[in-house]
Design brief:
The complex is a heterodimer.
Chain A: H1 2-21, H2 36-44, H3 51-70, H4 75-93, H5 98-122, H6 130-161
Chain B: H1 2-33, H2 42-75, H3 78-89, H4 92-113, E1 122-132, E2 140-143, E3 156-159, E4 162-170, E5 175-179, E6 189-195, E7 198-208, E8 213-219, E9 230-233, E10 245-254, E11 261-267, E12 276-282
Antiparallel strand pairs in B: 1-2, 1-12, 2-5, 3-4, 3-12, 4-5, 6-7, 6-9, 7-8, 8-11, 9-10, 10-11
Classes of the chains: A mainly alpha, B alpha+beta.
């Protein structure tokens, strides 16, 4: 459980660090919108024996994400919980090879962005068009694929060294 | 066997119903908390300050190195800037006298035009950005000055290049700033276009992300608006004092009915590249 929390905490800190130094979010955004915290949830799932423990971690990081980055409550808690639940379902059908992890990451990013967009649009908080969502999606991909690949190999290596076993 | 199966099904149904209920509850809380007008509750403020403090401690070395590299890049321009400053120094006495005269004129004009707040009546509180919204949709940044430094909701925030937004939420040590590039329907600003000395009033309504332009609507003047005319705040509301530069006119379009003009303005600030900002505190706010 602690190993998962450490991995997600590091990802959260990297999200915060990159938000300061890498320009993204407005017109000049380049192809790098980090979503490290969200995608780290895919990597940590196999280290949990109990699905509910894993979902509790998702809820906790959803809350921190809400407070740290959005000054709201509820949105990321909900989405992280839903994503955690979907990851647990995907894990039953997809293996844990790098290719499957990247496929899961694509699903998670699409799900996260679509849910956020839909909820904010439904609440009349913003009036972006659907192209903004598509743009956000493809801008999210490159950096996150690189990050999840690094995370996949490094967490596996560290787990092996520390004799931390995956539950499934 | 069948009874056990149906009991399990009933349990699953209950669990699903509870989860749906929790999701609806959380989204209702979000719908309430997403409002700009809301103040952060005390537990939220404490949590936010605590998390930001931990984040700052851990990220300090990385930020230090990052800022050092940025400053090194800027060093090459220092000599040139120094020469410009030296030449400006000679004009200091002249500018000082001019400034006093202008102050008197502004005071008289302010009374005549019934403008409440002007830029000269504010003091500048420097603040550094500690994080940007990662969620992409909100267009907000968080800075390291909060209510303890006298920051209050709705204070205008600028950089040396012009307006960037206003304070929407504060905790004791941090504040959230909503950028003018936010596409929130509440983000409307009264502005003036300086069209060769002819002042045109309008409302800045939205931001086009693709073209990086802000839209100004409601201009019914027939005169031709020139490209590169400067756009600045009018001071006709309580939030933004008059005279803060927003950007320059990029192009002008006429609305669908041919009655009013829709002016596209390129913001003077690059919102992606802001590290330090100034929060405008009204001098009488301190008391």
């Amino acid at each position: 459980m602690i190993y998962g929390i450490i991995i997600t905490s590091i990802s959260l800190l990297l999200d915060a660090l990159l938000s300061i130094f890498i320009p993204f979010g407005t017109s000049n955004s380049i192809f790098i919108i980090p979503m490290f915290t969200v995608i780290s949830l895919i990597i940590i799932y196999p280290y949990y024996n109990n699905k509910w423990d894993y979902l509790k971690v998702c809820l906790l990081f959803g809350l921190i994400y809400d407070i740290l980055f959005t000054n709201t409550l509820g949105l990321n808690i909900t989405i992280f919980f839903i994503i955690g639940f979907i990851i647990s379902l995907l894990d039953d059908t997809l293996s844990n090879t790098l290719f499957s992890i990247i496929i899961k990451m694509l699903i998670v990013i699409v799900l996260y962005d679509s849910l956020t967009y839909s909820i904010l649009y439904f609440l009349d908080y913003m009036d972006y068009n659907i192209m903004s969502l598509v743009e956000k999606l493809y801008k999210s991909l490159l950096l996150n694929v690189i990050y999840i690949t690094i995370l996949y190999f490094s967490t596996n290596a560290i787990a092996k060294k520390l004799s931390i076993r995956k539950a499934n | 066997m069948n009874i056990r199966k149906s009991k399990k099904r009933l349990e699953t149904k209950y669990i699903i119903l509870i989860i749906i209920g929790i999701i609806i509850l959380l989204l209702s809380i979000f719908a309430f908390t997403v409002k700009d007008k809301r103040n952060l509750s005390k537990p939220e403020q404490i949590l936010k300050d605590g998390i930001v403090l931990v984040q700052n401690i851990i990220l300090y070395p990385f930020k230090y190195i990052g800022n050092g590299i940025k400053e090194l890049y800027q060093l090459k321009d220092v000599y040139k800037e120094n020469q410009i400053l030296k030449s400006n120094l000679d004009r200091y006495d002249l500018l000082y006298t001019q400034n006093n005269e202008l102050k008197k004129e502004i005071k008289a004009l302010k009374e005549e035009m019934n403008i409440d707040y002007m830029l000269s009546e504010y003091e500048y509180l420097k603040a550094s950005i500690i994080n940007r919204n990662v969620g992409y949709w909100y267009d907000t940044i968080t800075v390291n000055k909060g209510s303890r430094d006298g920051v209050k909701k709705d204070m205008a925030v600028i950089t040396s290049k012009g307006l960037i937004g206003k304070v929407t939420k504060t905790t004791s040590f941090n504040s959230e700033i909503k950028l003018i590039t936010s596409n929130n329907s509440n983000n409307k600003i009264s502005v003036i276009i300086d069209n060769d000395g002819n002042k045109l009033y309008g409302i800045m309504t939205s931001y086009n992300e693709k073209n990086n332009t802000l839209s100004i609507e409601g201009i019914d003047d027939n005169s031709e608006i020139k490209k590169d005319s400067v756009v600045y705040t009018s001071g006709l509301n309580d939030i933004f004092p008059s005279g803060i530069i927003i950007g320059k006119v990029k192009n002008v379009e006429t609305d669908n009915y041919g009655l009013a003009k829709n002016v596209k303005v390129t913001p003077s600030n690059d919102m992606d590249d802001i590290m330090v900002v100034s929060i405008l505190k009204r001098k009488d706010n301190n008391q």
